[in-house]
Design goal:
418 residues; 4-stranded antiparallel sheet; 12 helices; 17 strands; elongated
Length: 418
């Protein structure tokens, strides 16, 4: 009998331990701000040529040019922990416009593990407060409540998340849950997470939420203050968001957007062993990027190169059999107005265009291409187009040409006689 009791007690203890380990997911310890400020000062005064990143995956992504400024295993599929909630929030905001709408917390949300807002079944709160609880406190219970509200179920909401991933061209990303607790089929890459974040930060509501350091929410009309788990927000110069994350498989994760001068970058570290590692990696990556790169007005230089070429060559391009002899040229759309460059970067411009074309020529017909290369790699190909339609000559035009020639010959003979 005693043995049975011991077995039962052992089983209960084991069960408690399992539950404790499950609920250990995503819980954020307090930030050591003294250490953090010292680390920021140290990195800022000793920026290395190439940062030593301990995290298993990392990227620095420029929002203006959509280019990678630094990468480490950035295309490797890895778990993403609560950085998942970037997709959760943007999908919800795009599918639920009324942020004042009241939500009653369901059983599934109340019972979820990991980091929590502390919701209980039957609690009532607004959609807005759930979103703040999702992105500031990283509440998994808030994630499930929002998912159930829009998708009908966690599975239904995950389908919406994956549809959005496909829409954004995220081919190496897949979602199973709205919170990001470990699942073998729930993954992304640092690059695709950067692209998702870049998209999400264009949403005014999303950007406002993730840029909030602390706020007051209401659950059952009772006020509660919550703070952002992002340790760099409000501490490191230029940081405007966006999301932390942690699970046993994903490790420590941090997605950060930083704006300084004319540069706007997203840095991501995934798979850090400790919170200090992810913080140090993020600070190193941010400071390295801003120290190495400066913004270059590519659009201005492209227009300058085009106009210089156009002044010489526009009249040299012939339109045969047309009502006009020459085209009127213009540049097509320039995708990258500004780009980040470093001291060693080499930018080259070249133009290839037709020398002759037969009428009729349609409006916006492509007459050539202006190519921009960065360090030998094509950065952009821009169409050179004909602004006006050029119609083919008809018999009246040819008759007029002949008549003009006779008139010119007559004038020449008269001048010779004089």
């Amino acid at each position: 009998m005693n043995n049975i009791k011991k077995i039962i007690i052992g089983f209960i203890i084991a069960l408690i331990c399992v539950n404790v380990s499950v609920f250990a997911y995503e819980i954020e310890e307090e930030t050591d701000y003294v250490w953090l400020k010292e680390e920021i000062e140290n990195v800022s005064t000793n920026v290395s040529k190439e940062p030593s990143i301990l995290s298993r995956s990392a990227i620095a992504f420029d929002r203006n040019s959509k280019t990678i400024l630094y990468g480490k295993n950035y295309d490797k599929e890895v778990p993403m922990a609560s950085t998942t909630k970037i997709m959760t929030a943007i999908v919800f905001v795009e599918n639920n416009k009324n942020l004042n709408e009241e939500v009653e917390v369901c059983k599934q949300a109340a019972n979820i593990g990991g980091s929590r807002l502390g919701l209980k079944r039957g609690d009532k709160t607004s959609v807005r407060d759930l979103l703040y609880g999702l992105m500031l406190r990283s509440g998994n219970d808030a994630a499930v409540a929002l998912a159930e509200h829009v998708g009908g179920s966690v599975k239904g909401f995950a389908e919406l998340m994956n549809e959005k991933a496909i829409e954004l061209g995220l081919t190496n990303t897949h979602f199973v849950t709205p919170h990001g607790l470990d699942d073998a089929n729930h993954y992304t890459t640092a690059l695709e997470l950067a692209k998702l974040t870049d998209y999400a930060m264009d949403n005014e509501t999303f950007a406002k939420i993730v840029g909030t350091k602390s706020t007051t929410i209401y659950i059952n009309n009772q006020s509660r203050q919550i703070n952002n788990t992002n340790e760099l927000l409000g501490v490191l110069n230029g940081v405007v968001g966006v999301k932390t994350g942690f699970t046993n498989n994903a490790g420590r994760c941090l997605v950060t957007e930083t704006k300084r001068n004319n540069m706007d970058i997203i840095t991501i570290v995934l798979g850090a062993d400790t919170k200090k590692d992810r913080t140090k990696d993020s600070v190193n990556l941010i400071e390295y990027t801003f120290s190495k790169y400066k913004m270059y007005n590519l659009e201005e230089r492209i227009i300058e190169e085009f106009n210089k070429w156009k002044n010489i060559n526009e009249k040299r391009i012939l339109i045969t059999k047309g009502k006009q002899n020459n085209p009127k040229l213009a540049l097509g759309a320039i995708e990258k107005a500004t780009i980040p460059i470093c001291d060693n970067d080499k930018i080259e411009y070249s133009i290839n265009a037709l020398t002759e074309v037969e009428a009729p020529v349609e409006q916006w017909n492509v007459m050539g291409t202006l190519t921009v290369k960065l360090n030998g790699e094509i950065l952009e190909n821009i169409d050179i187009v004909n602004v006006n339609e050029v119609q083919k000559r008809d018999w009246k035009d040819y008759f007029k040409i002949v008549l003009n020639r006779f008139e010119d010959m007559g004038k020449m003979l008269i001048n010779q006689q004089i």
